[in-house]
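Researcher: Here's a chain I'd like modeled. Treat it as a single chain, no partners, no ligands.
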Amino acid sequence: MKLVQIKYIFILGFTLLSLFSCNDEDISIITAIKVTPSDVQLLINQEFSFEVKGNNSEIITNDATIKVNGVAIENATFSSSNPGEFEAQAFYQDMESEIVNISAVYPSGYIQNVLVEDYTGTWCVNCPRLSWAIELAKQASDKVISVGIHYFDEMEMDGVSDLINEFGIVNYPTGIINRINVWDNVVQNTEAVTNLTGYGAPLGLSIDSSINGTNIDATIEVGFYEDVTTPLKIVVYLTENGLVYDQQNSTEYYGGPGLIVDFEHNDVLRAIYTNYLGENIPTAQTVIDNVYSLSLQKAIPTSVQNNDQLHLIAFVTDANTNEVINVREVKVGEEQELQEL
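Model: Modeled as a single isolated chain. Structure tokens:
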């Protein structure tokens, strides 16, 4: 009888040990790797840094070999004194990452920013996924500017239906990049946004603004590095940060499924201070070395909760396609210079 009990205990212990061992192995095993650059485009002599991560989310940069154009680099960093296109790839054990393309350019033109318009609502259970992806994109690049366009909730702006109808918004959330591309597979595809940032934009913007009583006074300047023959328009948004409302959530983000109590909503669209498709920029102004100026005095909407959390966003679009050519954001009350290189 004792022999049977001992045999049973031995078998049970071996089984549990095997299960735990298998679980540990499943958690730690790496079957694929990915290399991510800090930027996809920098000026000559600026330094790219790289991160290598396994498909189990383990960061293995220090254990991997990174090559740029086939030559191993040290300390996971790379810079070039000459302009050009470069291919970066990581190697770990017997695995190779996909090649990522980076480039070094001469300083010319303007810094290239990118706009993401996030169509969302507090009732939308999948919308936190896009909010999370926007946060990731902004962590990866300081050239990402976002706007939360709320529908059918406490933060809905008067006239939002014009945007929804114009851009054919049916599903929520929907992320529109530079007003022409739908952002798919958002959390795993932040590069769809960050790859559009960089240098060498043909035009750049600056915004100076102040609050005067219940109004905002603003001057937006557009500088031109080259002649632009395409008809252009300029759009100006007012946004507000720090709005606290409960958010429905069925995603794995922000703590997982369930109501998110007192979720902080940022970049919330409060007003459009131009036509939603923009105001025409005279063609006589869109020439090399010229600076076009637009002055506005607009009322602060009564829906605004905190003037200290207000931002202005201005962007220039191709009048034929609505594509955003460049965009800029400023906290109301602050001044900017053109981002000329």
